[in-house]
Design brief:
alpha+beta
């Protein structure tokens, strides 16, 4: 999806506030800080790129007011069911017949 120049200019203006996590930073990306929303929830999960804390869709405005964050990573996972005709392996073993 191509972005227009006005949107890119807004993103570039806030890029200086984005941090790159180092080995000592904790990134809370599994569950919302206030609810049980996960990336598999209908609205997904938004990760603040300044504080590395995750929020559900309904708490996004609260985080913006609290932290002033403007750029978020939106994670939305979708489960893909396995085909019903998928056959499970009969033997688990390296180099074994059927494994």
């Amino acid at each position: 999806m191509p972005l227009d120049e006005a949107t890119l200019a807004l993103v570039r203006a806030h890029m200086r506030n984005v941090k790159v996590p180092s080995h000592g930073d904790k990134v809370y990306k599994d569950e919302c800080m206030f609810s049980y929303d996960t990336p598999e929830s209908p609205g997904g999960l938004y990760i603040n790129l300044t504080t590395f804390q995750a929020y559900g869709e309904e708490f996004l405005g609260l985080d913006h007011q609290r932290s002033g964050g403007r750029l978020y990573l939106h994670e939305k996972w979708t489960r893909v069911p396995l085909p019903e005709d998928a056959e499970a392996p009969g033997t688990l073993g390296v180099g074994a017949q059927g494994g």
